[in-house]
Specification:
8 helices; 3 domains; globular; alpha/beta; four-stranded parallel sheet
Length: 325
Amino acid sequence: MAKYQTLLYYCYTTIANAEQFAADHLQFCKSLGLTGRIIVADEGLNGTVSGTTEACGTYMKAVHADERFASTEFKIDEVDEPSFIKMHCRYKAEIVHSGLRDPHIIDPKKQTGVHLAPNEFLEMKDRDDVVILDVRSNYEHSLGKFKNAVTLDIDNFRDFPSKINELAQYKGKKILTYCTGGIKCEKASALLLHEGFEEVYQLHGGIIKYGKEAGGKDFEGKCYVFDNRVAVDVNTVNPVVISKCYNCGKTTAKMINCANPECNEHFTQCDECGWELDGCCSNECKSHPRKRLYDGTGYYVKVPQQINLNKEGRGAFIKDLRPLA
């Protein structure tokens, strides 16, 4: 039996003095021996934390005891070791960065798409009048997505609002949105309703809950997660691998960060190319003087580091993902 758990959760709720709450909450998490990453904003909480089963149980009870977070739903994974190295709890403007901060435009506490339980989503997703919409970023849906899902060319969720016009062709259909745990869909579905889409739904609990309750049927590939595990299996019914090696095109589900810290490209790479390029995305990065030591995992402990934003399509989203070193 696994000794540790990893908890994925979010809650849209009003938090007064959110900056102070973040500082106090960090100390509370550390007192329990938890590791993880929590974002606190005036609009709520968004977190993934990991620790012993006992510590996670204490944490969930404490969160639920606060009436502001009483409705928080935790997705619980049993893990062999903690999914993070350190504990971070930071105050930010939003709990998921969308650039949509005006509550008069969208407010997930007041209006979102209709929440579908995993089995309801499963029953609806293949209907002729339905469009399945993945609201996640490129690196996520390239690793895994629902069969026949519409994906958007975005490097970060904050790019989603600018893509709304590309979805106009689907206005006469039911839109079923999904993401990893549900948090992005709260804002995406609210924005779609604001823009005139009449029938908007969202997968409650996201891909993670769908895997646990509906067997992950027709989710192709793996699901990207924002911790040391990087990717998790979802589909126990009809699993396939859809992602390709960035360098040779071979089918692979392994995702890494480039060993060159000034690139830090987030990409899929097979083991053969990984060892040949020493964990880099290119020979240019392989010869970089600051290249990190590659141990076959492509995961690096975070230390402050300047990001090179000059490479097209890179960098803008990396600092919000896996650690740099």
